[in-house]
Design goal:
About 25% of the residues lie in helices and about 25% in strands. It has about 70 residues and is α+β, with helices and mostly antiparallel strands. The radius of gyration is 14 Å and the shape is globular.
């Protein structure tokens, strides 16, 4: 993931997860302040290619994936 440069970050409450995100994101101050307030289905997209912090809402899929199908 560190080479990819784009992160989709959901509500984080685990201190280990929070520290890892702080260590990899340059804009961690602004993002870290938002993380505790994300609701179910909300996320933040951060990327080296996107100069903004983008809040998004992730909707449940209309067709539920079949986890028995291998990739």
């Amino acid at each position: 993931m560190s080479q990819f440069g784009t992160f989709i970050i959901h509500n984080l409450t685990n201190s280990n997860d929070i520290e890892r995100i702080k260590n990899v994101l340059e804009k961690s101050g602004a993002i870290m302040g938002l993380l505790p307030y994300l609701n179910e289905g909300e996320a933040i997209i951060s990327s080296v290619n996107i100069p903004l912090i983008l809040p998004v809402t992730v909707h449940k899929p209309r067709v539920i994936p079949d986890s028995d199908i291998p990739f």
